Amino acid sequence: MLLLIGLLAIVNPLGALPVFLSMSDQENPEADMRTINRATTAVACILLAAAWTGEWLLNFFGITIDAFRAGGGLLIILMGISMLHGRQSHVQHGSGEAKEIEEKEDISVVPLAMPLMAGPGSISLVILDANKIHSWTGELMLACAIIAVAAVVWLVLVIAEKMHDKLGTIGLNIATRIMGLILTAIGVQFMSDGIKGLFPGLAA
Question: pTM of the entire structure?
Answer without folding.
Answer: 0.83
